[in-house]
Amino acid sequence: MADSQMTPELMKEIYYYMALSRAVDDRMWILNRQGKAPVVYSSNGHEAAQVGSAFALNRGEDWIAPYYRDLALVLAWGMTPREVMLHVLARADDPNSGGRQMPAHWGSRRLHILSGGSVVATQNAHAAGLALASKMLKDGRVAVAYFGEGSTSQGEFHEALNFAAVWKLPVIFFNENNGYAISVPQRKQMAITDVAARAQGYGIPGVIVDGNDPIKVWEVTRAAAERARRGEGPTLIEAKTYRFVPHSSDDDDRAYRSREEVMEWKKRDPLITFEQRLEAEGILSAEEKARMQQQIKDAVNDATDYAEKAALPDPATLERYVYAE
Amino acid sequence: MTYLEAIRAGLRQEMQLDPRIVIWGEDVGVRGGVFRVTEGLQQEFGEDRVIDSPLAEGAIVGVAIGAAIGGLRPIPEIQFGDFIFPAMNQIVEEAARMRYRSNNDFHVPLVIRAPIGGGIHGALYHSQSVEAFFAHVPGVKVAVPGTPYDAKGLLAAAIADEDPVLFFEHKAAYRSLRGEVPEERYLIPLGQAEVKREGKDLSIITYSLMVNYALRAAETLQQEGISVEVLDLRTVRPLDQARILETAKKTGKVLIVHEDNRTGGIGAEVSAILAEEALFYLDAPIRRLCGPDVPAMPYSPPLEHAFMITPEKIAQAARELARF
Q: For B96-126, b where at least 16 C-beta lie within 10 A, e where not — what string?
């Protein structure tokens, strides 16, 4: 079960996963620039929103339907750095897809991470369906779909929220609003300032939260999960955040946003601000931080080495698993 | 029992056996569906298992994908095959690719029911044959029953299947076709064609309502001394290659009949199989009798009639082929 109270220990754990994700993320880019990973998708900047929400749920037990931005989320959910690196390097043992999908297409039945494709917003309906199954099978699970603000322009986003609201399903729609759909800013995507305002059209609560504050995200996600488990239906959460790097390793964000804007947001880097808070409140000592940083460095090195040595998929497997075998 | 009653009996029987089966779609509950296929099921199984859903095909299928992965056995209904295209994204990109993209970690046991076909004054948007779009897609199966008996048996197999199945019911067959249907449960494996009538002069390869029309044409031709074999494909994905080749090699002449448009239709695939695997057994060019390449079936009776394949048109095409 998710903890019902925020404690210093929990805050440190949240910090650990945020820092782990940033380190794994940075390594992915290095692997890309070394020519070892053809493409990478980052969660750099989104860590507070993802890890804060994960810790408000029953990690590995509830269902999540992530999108490609959700590295920190799946790490907090239980995927190991080794598993992430097997995916990034398209190895045979990649648990997400066996090297079949592009990086950041997460999926693990064991961890209740629903496999995702690349067409945006489809996972909202899947999360509603998972929630319907939980409601009927009475397993007490909540399903959470994660998605960017650009995907809320899709008809399927609307369809899914409407279904979930009418059927009062135990589902949370968690928007990571970083203001850009690749290059298209929010003002060209929608004529409203808050994605959360869309909730009104479905008769469900729409909650805005500072996506760079993991504790605030934890609080609103917890409330939404409790509401879902009480049978009161879905919640739309909008976590306002920012992506510090280009959309992918093939993108160049200098084409569509100023360096000044990026630097302004970097002052509110969730990893740094949370670290400062934990230090200021005496929750994270210098020794603990150093120990954690070493642990993360070791884990990232181990994961990289492990994945680099791992076998690539056998071409003879190309035609397997189209249907049940 | 009619074709429609066979499908309803199949749904009821499966729902009695498996509490995980849930039906939803537009008008399927209180109204029992616009064709009444699900009539009485909500009364019997309750509003939790037969659900009137919002009018949105994409979510009808998308929610079903999530529910299937979550442990249910959903059987969503798309009210008309013509309305399935908003759900194309969920069917092709999600349901069909789920097993492959997750390297067998996830799969989607899901049956999507939809009526297809024309001849009932349904016009452009209530008459379409949509099976070829899906037959092209690895990861789904496509059932197109042509008799009440097959409808019930294929439905049971579709529900038992661990992969997504599109189950296309011919709406003109719902009340016009009757046949013996056992009360006990039976499964007809997906991917097995059946010879519905033995013959020696030529083979008609077809499916869905056209099976009945082909049998009627064969009866007519029998009286003219032409012996026609009729092979019912029963599923258009997978295609039963062995039986297709068997009948072609036996008679040496093949007429493929379907109501769906000619270009890129199932007939094209069957023809390719024959060209690759049975060319030297053929005594005549492969013939196709198909719906014309117009966007969809017109409304006004003379136009609709001109579109539709009839037993007479089949008999004429077969007669010409027999004379070749």
A: bbbbbbbbbbbbbbbbbbbbbbbbbebbeeb
- Which parts of chain B register pLDDT below 50? none
Where does CATH 3.40.50.970 sit in chain B?
A: 3-176
Q: What is the pTM of this model?
A: 0.97
* A292 vs B: CB within 8 A: no
Token pair of A124 as six digits: 């909202």
CA distance A133 to B19: 12
Residue of A nearest to B52 (CA): A167
User: Residue B56: closest CA among chain A residues belongs to which residue?
Assistant: A159
- State the pLDDT at residue B162: 98
Which residues from B are below 8 Å from A96, CB to CB? 102
- Which residues of chain B neighbour A109 with C-beta distances below 8 Å? 102, 105-106
Look at A129 and B74 and tell me if their CB atoms are within 8 Å.
Answer: yes
Which two tokens mark A245? 């790097």
Candidates A59, A158, A229, A256; catalytic one: A256
User: Is the CB of A163 less than 8 angstroms away from the CB of B56?
Assistant: yes
Question: CA dist A139 to A63, A133, B17, B73, B116, Å?
Answer: 11, 9, 21, 16, 38
CATH architecture label of A8-317: 3-Layer(aba) Sandwich (3.40)
Q: Any catalytic annotation for residue A15?
A: no
pLDDT at A286: 96
Q: How far apart are CA A72 and CA A48, in angstroms?
A: 9
For residue A1, pLDDT beyond 70: no
Calculate how close chain A gets to B52, using CA atoms only, in Å: 10
**Active site (annotated) includes residue A256:** yes
Q: Where residue A2 falls among pLDDT bands split at 50, 70, 90?
A: confident
Domains of chain A: which residue ranges? 8-317
What CATH number was assigned to the domain covering residues B3-176? 3.40.50.970
What is the rounded distance in angstroms from the CA atom of residue B191 to the CA atom of residue B165? 12
Smallest CA–CA distance from A108 into chain B, residue? B105
**Residue range(s) in chain B whose domain bears CATH number 3.40.50.920:** 194-323
Alpha carbon of B306: minimum distance to chain A alpha carbons (Å):
37
A243 in active site: yes
Shortest Cα–Cα distance, A102 to chain B (Å): 10
Q: What is the CATH number of domain B194-323?
A: 3.40.50.920
Helix axes A81-88, A8-33, angle to 10 degrees: 20
Q: Is the pLDDT of residue A3 over 80?
A: no
Q: What's the ipTM? A: 0.97
Angle, nearest 10°, between helix axes A214-229 and A8-33? Answer: 110
Residue A102 with chain B: CB contacts under 8 Å: none
Nearest to B187 by CA among B139, B138, B130, B149: B149
State the helix-helix crossing angle for A214-229 and A47-54, rounded to 10 degrees. Answer: 40
